[in-house]
Design brief:
86 residues, mainly alpha
Length: 86
């Protein structure tokens, strides 16, 4: 059960990330891509185009990040299915 604890400590909280994105434009940094986050800010969200794209893809990005964390934590395929990551 230690793997589940590690996963729970490291996974991305989708509610928190959505709120940060909607109010501050912060999402890439929460998912481990600081370079993209800086570029996002410097281009003002790609003058809005990148922001719209991110709105459409953020949920999938969170799920992908959490799946990566689960695999790194040593969770099995059955655990991934239970967590709705596959």
């Amino acid at each position: 059960m230690k793997s589940i604890e590690v996963y729970n400590n490291r996974k991305a909280d989708s509610t928190k990330i959505w709120l940060l994105f909607l109010f501050l434009g912060w999402s890439y940094g929460s998912l481990g891509s600081m370079g993209k986050q800086v570029l996002f800010y410097l281009t003002l969200g790609g003058l809005g185009f990148w922001t719209v794209y991110r709105l459409l893809t953020l949920s999938k990005a969170i799920k992908k990040h959490n799946k990566k964390v689960a695999i790194e934590s040593g969770l099995s395929s059955d655990d991934l299915m239970k967590l709705n990551l596959i």
